Amino acid sequence: MRFDPVCAARRYHPSIASVRLLACDLDGTLCRPDGTVSERTRAALRAAVAADVQVVLVTGRPPRFVERAAGQTGVEGPVICSNGAVVYDWAGDVVLDARTMQPHEFVLTVGIVRTIVPGVALAIEWDTAFTFERRFAELIGREGVPVADDVLDHEGAPPHKLLAIHAELDQEALASALTPPLADQLTVTHSGLPFIEMGPRGVTKATGLASWCARQDVRAEEVVAFGDMPNDIPMLRWAGWGVAMGNGHVETLEAADEVTATNDEDGVAIVVERLLRDGGYTASAAS
């Protein structure tokens, strides 16, 4: 468990009686390496819901990539997408809420990125759609996707995410180069993919989850959050109890209150089952 002056006064080992909401990342957390969700994990989440604990998916995925993964979890209700920028009703294919970039912020940011990292290729996520620059599509090996010569030619809804990739720099190097100069414009993070993700300033999984919880009258100390990558760190720190996956990024492991087993070993289910067991419930009871 980490220990610092901010958390020392409020950190505790939760019991199911004190938990009202489980916030779960998808990739690398609920989803196994092959992209599937185990029956054990689904059963644990069903049991949590049966015990009156809400389960909310909080992912870096954009809306268009949510339905298949969310459907496998068995979790109903909207998903907090795009690192907290979008609340999406995947069953109805409707964006319920979105934090987007202002046009002037978008243009300014693209200029800064291109100046600091020459040769960078960009893409944008907007509403339930996306546009890749041609070079971006080439570098990630995607064909048949919407492409443009320049993301600044975009004329659709304001983007909620800007993506950047470089042929010679990995995501860690890109994030290190762009985070300081973009601190006043955007939130920079990465989630294990070959590109970095930049969202509206101040928007993270934590802010998206906090906004959702405020509407549900759920306090931070009543939340247990699960994640594996740097984009999960704000959420793990905000929640009353932050759980990192055993397969997680080293920074995420250091930020968490607890490290569970890997996503391939049902790490989320192990923690949820323990909470249920301590409260007199069993995961199989809800199957």
Summarize this structure briefly.
This protein is an alpha/beta fold and 287 residues long. Helices cover 30% and strands 20% of the residues. It contains 10 helices and 14 strands.
- Rg on CA atoms, Å: 19 Å
Number of domains: 2
Instruction: Please tally the helical runs, counting DSSP H or I stretches of 4 or more residues.
Output: 10
CATH fold-level name of the largest domain: Rossmann fold
N- and C-termini, Cα separation: 32 Å
Q: If classified by CATH, what would the architecture of the largest domain be?
A: 3-Layer(aba) Sandwich
Order of neighbouring strands in the sheet with most strands? 8-7-6-9-11-10
The CATH superfamily of the largest domain is: HAD superfamily/HAD-like
Provide the succession of SSEs. HEHEHEEEHEEHEEHEEHEHEHEH
* Count of extended strands: 14
Q: Which class of the largest domain in CATH terms? A: Alpha Beta
What spatial form do the alpha-carbon principal axes imply? elongated
Helix content: 25-40%
- Report the β-strand fraction as a percent range: 15-25%
Contiguous runs where pLDDT drops below 50 for at least 5 residues: 1-10
Mean pLDDT equals: 90
**Major β-sheet annotation:** 6 strands, mixed
Helix and strand content put the structural class at alpha/beta
Secondary structure topology:
Layout (H helix, E strand, L loop, with lengths): L4 H4 L12 E4 L14 H12 L3 E4 L9 H7 L5 E3 L4 E4 L4 E5 L4 H14 L4 E6 L2 E5 H6 L7 E2 L12 E5 L5 H8 L7 E4 L6 E5 L4 H11 L7 E5 L5 H6 L2 E4 L5 H6 L2 E2 L7 H12 L9
Parallel strand pairs: 1-2, 1-12, 7-8, 12-13, 13-14
Antiparallel strand pairs: 3-4, 4-5, 6-7, 6-9, 9-11, 10-11
Helix pairs in contact: 2-10
